Amino acid sequence: MACLGSVNQSVVALSNKFHNTNTQSLPTKHLSSLSLFSGSSSPLSTKSPKTYKPTYRVNTGIVRAEAMTTEKLGIKIERNPPESRLTQLGVKSWPKWGCEPSKFPWTFTTKETCYLLKGKVKVYPDGANECVEIGAGDLVEFPKGMSCTWDVSVAVDKHYSLG
């Protein structure tokens, strides 16, 4: 079964690797990615033929992809919603639920909106040959009446709202 919605972690990994590295040398292969974080096309000083050292501070303290809502197999997912959106919805006041890695069937008897604080889940809607992957930082809406199987690979901690 194919799984829709997997997140490419390379941007986050590169961000984490070079967070506040204004004095760290960067391998040549990361040179083209540097302007993505710096917002600059300024030339970099050469330290050696294969190594570059930034001449400016690489500001990656806050790396957040634009929030984008997608709908796959009836499940709406907003990846990395801004804090203002979470505040507007009152997410921090919603009840919390969590579970350890496991696999179980579930039916949503009412519409549920949830925000995953941590975890990783593959959701297999009944009758579909695909799954939808959700994880920490996702704001997810499940429609009323959806029956599915949750395959939790990393323990989940989430806020949820019914109705």
From TrEMBL:
Highest taxon of the lineage: Eukaryota
Pfam families reported for this sequence: Cupin_3 (PF05899)
InterPro entries: RmlC-like_jellyroll (IPR014710), RmlC_Cupin_sf (IPR011051), UGlyAH_Cupin_dom (IPR008579)
Domain (S)-ureidoglycine aminohydrolase cupin: 87-160
Record protein name field: (S)-ureidoglycine aminohydrolase cupin domain-containing protein
Species, as recorded: Vitis vinifera (Grape)
